[in-house]
Amino acid sequence: MTDHPLLAVEDLVVEYPTPRGPFRAVDQVSFRIERGTSLAVVGESGSGKSTIARALVRLLEPASGRILLDGTDIAHLPERRLRPLRRRIQMVFQDPYGSLDPHLTALQTVAEPLRLAGMGDRAERLRRAAELLDRVGLPNSALERRPAEFSGGQRQRIGIARALASGPDLLVCDEATSALDVSVQAQVLNLLRELQKETGVAYLIIAHNLGVVREISDHVLVMRLGGLVETGPTESVLATPAEPYTRALRRAALDPAAVRGRKPRALLTAALEGTRP
Question: Domain-by-domain residue ranges, the chain?
Answer without folding.
Answer: 99-168
